[in-house]
Amino acid sequence: MKDDNVLDIAKRRGFFWPSFEIYGSVGGFYTYGPLGALLKLRIEQMIRNHYVNNEGCLLIEAPLLSPEDPWVASGHVESFTDMTIECGKCGEPYRADHLLEEKTKKSTEGMSLTMIKGLIKKNDVRCPRCGGPLENVYDYNLMFKTFIGPGKNKIAADLRPETAQTTYMPFRRLFELGRKKLPLGVIQFGKSFRNEISPRQGLVRLREFSQAEAQFFLDPENKRKHSKFDLVKRKRLSVLTKHDQVRNKPGNALEASGLVRKKLTSEWIAYFLAVSVKLFEDMGIDGSRLRCRQHKDDERSFYSSDTWDVEYMSDSYGKIELVGIADRTDYDLKRHQEFSKQSMEVNIEGRRFVPHVVEIAYGIDRPVYSVIESCLRHDGDRTYFSFPPTVSPYQVAVFPLVKKDGLPKKAREIQKTLLDAGFYALYDEGFIGRLYYRQDEAGTPFCITYDYDSKKDNSVTIRKRDDQKQIRVRIKDIVNVIGDIISGRVKFEKAGKLLK
Amino acid sequence: MKDDNVLDIAKRRGFFWPSFEIYGSVGGFYTYGPLGALLKLRIEQMIRNHYVNNEGCLLIEAPLLSPEDPWVASGHVESFTDMTIECGKCGEPYRADHLLEEKTKKSTEGMSLTMIKGLIKKNDVRCPRCGGPLENVYDYNLMFKTFIGPGKNKIAADLRPETAQTTYMPFRRLFELGRKKLPLGVIQFGKSFRNEISPRQGLVRLREFSQAEAQFFLDPENKRKHSKFDLVKRKRLSVLTKHDQVRNKPGNALEASGLVRKKLTSEWIAYFLAVSVKLFEDMGIDGSRLRCRQHKDDERSFYSSDTWDVEYMSDSYGKIELVGIADRTDYDLKRHQEFSKQSMEVNIEGRRFVPHVVEIAYGIDRPVYSVIESCLRHDGDRTYFSFPPTVSPYQVAVFPLVKKDGLPKKAREIQKTLLDAGFYALYDEGFIGRLYYRQDEAGTPFCITYDYDSKKDNSVTIRKRDDQKQIRVRIKDIVNVIGDIISGRVKFEKAGKLLK
Predict the structure, then answer these.
(1) Interfacial A residues in 253-312 facing B (CB < 8 Å)
(2) According to the model, what pLDDT value does residue B2 have?
(3) A7 to each of A12, A181, B273, how far by Cα in Å?
(4) pTM of the model
(5) Residue A93 has pLDDT above 50, yes or no
(6) Parallel, antiparallel, or unpaired: how do β-strands A306-314 and A318-329 relate?
(7) Domains in chain A, ordered, with CATH?
(8) B243 touches chain A (CB under 8 A)
(9) B146 lies within 8 A of chain A by CB
(10) Nearest to A33 among B60, B63, B340 (CB)
(11) ipTM value of the model?
């Protein structure tokens, strides 16, 4: 029962839990507790550091709420809908197409509302909850709607369903700030909202979720080559192309360069598939469960010329899309140009054109879940999370062996030294076995104990989470040693005097 | 015209700008551009580090959207309103009480809707925009309302107007995770929303804004003494008490300890006033413009027994409230207990009680604005932002003297070294004067230039933003030197060979 375990531990240890519990929780809303909020913060930090430092992206932050105009232009007001049907008796809403597919085991792809309504009647599909009759089929828009301002002049508004459009709107300003050069990369972190009909998949399908979406604006005549492709070309990826799926083939292991050489996708997309898989692995997600899957032609959004997902094969939820990488062409900027009457054209080397966009759209909650699931370890009667020190809520915990004789004060001083040096260091006190147990369940990679000998030999014991090995290290070296073992520059066993 | 300058530079250099510009901007929504988003991130990081590391707060993250229940319990559904009146001709909405006060120069405090309506008619107050008649006075709720889920069973929901209630709701879970001890500190960062009638004050009054709210749950019998008060007792504060205001006195400069000794407030509130003023000063906000002001009895929220604000005296906007520190008593937890029927009592040392709460509620956007305004410097024809290295978007920029002869490659290597060491380092290239100019306007405290001599002497020049002094430093020492001068451990002039 691995999956129960993950969710049980996550809840018990305060990684996350359903929101508004005291009033009865509502599907699709989760609250991150102390460990989860820190884990999420580290994961966002990793993605941000990579895109800002290594890819040169500009970071921006736009509002979540906006007037409808951009969502009319983007097509969300018209098309961001699910076919919905309700039970005439208990009122429970369902995805009409999904319900019909479950009953008939046949695809509803391309069917109109009317057809689906007819087939639901013909097949006598009934409410799965109470057996009542299903009625009132309609297209249900997944944006949360509200109004800005009071009275007659109030403005219809929506909570954004993605960050992307809020990055496209100020493109002209961003192009100026980026000194009128392409490619221009811009990344935005923040909440987005989808008013799902009936979400029941924990962090994997939320009505309010966190994203990190990078938009690269490109010259369409200079779109395929990526200047840093050589850095990732040897990265091995598990690949499932659209052709594989059509032909029912299992996919292949390929190097990133193979994806391009076989003309399966562009260097830009292959580059970011490799970068994303590497990032996910560095977070602690099991690389053998990651797959790069290309969208089929009939599945891809109409504005995209090529889309890939990196998927994680979860024990609890099946396939989870962690990031979507799409060539969105010039569709979005042209639509904003058309609807706002503001030019989105740039003039580069005497050519005027609307840039194309390659988007890398990360969910944050799903990677958080996947890291937690991937890192759960059972070792005899020990249970721990093997979070890498880059994402673990705490990198190091410091304990006094006992809560007396001045030991707590000394342990706190060591914690302070580590905090000042920039490490995520926690202080705790109590029975030592209990303290280790807690840090195992928090996934803290290293624990430091200040004991009675510490006063004499000016040294402390460091315990490694994964194999419980212990080394003795001089207190004056502690910052360097923790830096060395966290970064992996020095092997744990070599970083001090190995005990036992 | 200092204030125009701040807003002009902020917009031109991409700190922030009105959102949705291409569709016509809407009051109360701003987008942070590349420099602003980084500055905001650093400011949030400072507050988070302080409260998590030094105050031992648990960090959590709850949804922004929620069913109405908590907002009924908190009183927001009933009382979070402004009296609104609209123009019968152009439809423009106004605060009815403010409009009447402007016309009559008399306070409307305590007046009912009906009285205000009558006085508006009697005084012939008309629409300031078009001169039309004012009509339709009503209480307007400032929460953004929407619905969760489709159809008949949809749930009425609101965007949160503060983070506080979303921290109180899971109090029982947090108390367990904090091992059933008081005081318990919890902090939450994130967006909140207030559907203001007609906001026109830039970052200072937003409909969508960022907050950092810390809640300390306390034993009411052990509420006044703060264990770390000694650390701040000598901190000098500019203080305006409720008595000063009633008696029209100008206030005093006092040490934090004086606030307690004179029984003006509790140690808990005095402690966090001192901590907040220190944090704001460390961000670069002009300390001589900060004042601790106590709410008057008739101004304080009814649930609070004592409330203080730290205010910044802005050139552009007058008094800006940067943080509110309030003793919220047991009001909120008791209301949630009453409305949810879930006990909020704790059992400590045989006593059962509902904890009291001291809240420290930071805005984020207002400190961001105040830092920008406080740090703008004019020095002859130079203009720069004197951001401290703790909050500056970039701590150090690295340039090649020219864009040829292999200099760019070497400069990039230095940037990489600095990034790997954890500094916020930017690479740029172009004419050196132009590069300095750009970094002055970005507030980057140090610039490093790799020049033709660098190849021979393995050294680079570091230029200090504030006085343009330059030192020559060996490349192999660059990480240590940048660390020393950023932290202030070593004086700039002593950190290398002073040039000129």
Answers:
(1) none
(2) 43
(3) 8, 47, 40
(4) 0.96
(5) yes
(6) antiparallel
(7) 3-78+143-238+266-374 (3.30.930.10), 83-95+99-141 (no CATH), 394-499 (3.40.50.800)
(8) no
(9) yes
(10) B60
(11) 0.96
